[in-house]
Design a protein that fits this description.
8 strands; ATP binding; 3'-5' DNA helicase activity; 3 domains; Rossmann fold; hydrolase
Length: 422
């Protein structure tokens, strides 16, 4: 059970951070920890669902080997399902909201304070609809179209308002501040470096491809070779990077890529060489295709940014008009007024533990590199106390190189600072 002590895990992209966190969750439960005493925090609702799904999947598939005296995977899964209403797999914002409600008196808040991002009743849905109405009123037609497309409004025609309301809440939670704090990242192609160039005479290049003489290629393995090179040829790694950014919806993208790099293509089960002129034309056309997609994507992104700014303004105005708080304002209040008092050795924090369904004995933070200074001020004392306890732990995982939430105060340097918690 040594691996269940307090620790950190610095892991790069694709190396299994969610695997490590979900496996630890499983092992803690199998070792006897009440599932509701494990607090697993992350940054988006989608990530919380991913963590929970990973925990359930590992136990269902018996992927975690129990040590002597532990619960089996089936027993651990049953314990988790029994504790489902009390599980604490949530966003940091949701955790802060829960703590704030328990500390409402100390924070000078009304015990029944409301958050703009929370609620699913008629009043909350009406406010979200009003947010959308004001946004559509105050933005351009193009930006409004981007926003409506984003939420797939046409799919909800005649249906309940709940699906749209939920998507709007989730989107504001995950991306609302990004549009406001990082305007330079929306639709600015100059930030991507050298870009593929548009063709000056696209039709002439197409005609060149039609007119070039071709020669048959008889190698029966040529098709596999073409496909392999189109996917893995080292000289087109940069092409792969671009494709990953824009994902052009063109069935012939791979084929044109092979034309450009290999100067050959398949026609009626024969492989034909394009020749020097044809290959040059294919390269220019590929660049043109990519350039057009990039510019189209940038235009859509810029319009979406304008729509998001309007959405933020509408949400802020409504929150102020109705006396509600945003998650950002609430976290700032927690950090400034409560700060280091959130400790299981502190009388005030023991009161929090008592008021919660159960005490937090194991704290886990996913994608820790994106934790903001304000959020860490709320969590750090609790993390310290848990790390020093005999039957409690603090675990965090992340990758400094992947820090993406600087726009909301995320500070990747905290990843190193937290290593000194114990």
């Amino acid at each position: 059970m040594d691996d269940l002590g307090s620790q950190y895990l610095s892991a790069s992209a694709g190396s299994g951070k969610t695997f490590a966190l979900s496996r630890r969750f499983c092992r803690l439960v199998m070792a006897g920890a009440p599932p509701e005493a494990i607090c697993a925090l992350t940054f988006t609702r989608a990530a919380t669902r991913e963590i929970f799904a990973a925990v359930v999947e590992r136990l269902l598939n018996h992927e975690v080997e129990p040590e002597p005296g532990w619960l089996t995977c089936d027993q651990a899964l049953a314990a988790i399902l029994d504790a489902l209403p009390r599980l604490q797999i949530s966003t940091i914002d949701a955790f802060s909201s829960r703590v704030a409600r328990l500390f409402a008196y100390e924070l000078g808040l009304s015990p029944d304070f409301a958050l703009y991002e929370e609620g699913s009743g008629p009043e909350a849905q009406a406010m979200l609809r009003e947010t959308v109405r004001r946004t559509l009123r105050d933005t351009t037609a193009a930006s409004a179209r981007e926003l409506l497309d984003l939420f797939d409004v046409q799919d909800d025609a005649g249906a309940s308002a709940e699906p749209l309301s939920k998507r709007l809440r989730d989107f504001l939670d995950d991306f609302g501040e990004l549009a406001r704090a990082r305007p330079e990242g929306w639709g600015d192609l100059s930030r991507l470096g050298d870009l593929p160039q548009l063709c000056k005479d696209r039709e002439a290049l197409v005609q060149t491809l039609r007119d070039v003489p071709v020669a048959g290629v008889s190698d029966k393995h040529a098709e596999s070779y073409l496909n392999a090179v189109a996917l893995y040829h080292p000289e087109i790694e940069s092409v792969r990077d671009w494709k990953g950014r824009v994902q052009p919806d063109r069935k012939d993208f791979e084929k044109l890529l092979a034309f450009a790099e290999l100067g050959a293509y398949k026609y009626r089960n024969k492989f034909l060489e394009l020749g020097e002129r044809g290959q040059a034309a294919a390269k220019a056309l590929w660049a043109d295709l990519l350039a057009r997609d990039l510019r189209q994507t940038a235009a859509h992104t810029a319009e979406l940014h304008r729509a998001l700014l309007a959405l933020n303004r509408a949400a802020d105005d409504l929150a102020e008009e109705t006396g509600r708080l945003t998650f950002g304002a609430l976290t700032q209040t927690l950090a400034s007024r409560l700060g280091g008092r959130l400790s299981v050795a502190d009388e005030a924090a023991m009161y929090v533990a008592y008021r919660m369904d159960t005490a937090v004995r194991h704290l886990m933070i996913d994608e820790f590199q994106d934790t903001s200074v304000t959020q860490w001020e709320v969590l750090s004392s609790l993390a310290h106390e848990l790390a020093e306890g005999d039957d409690s732990t603090f675990f965090y995982v992340g990758d400094v190189k992947q820090s993406i939430y600087g726009w909301r105060g995320g500070d990747a340097t905290l990843f190193g600072d937290a290593r000194r918690v114990p």
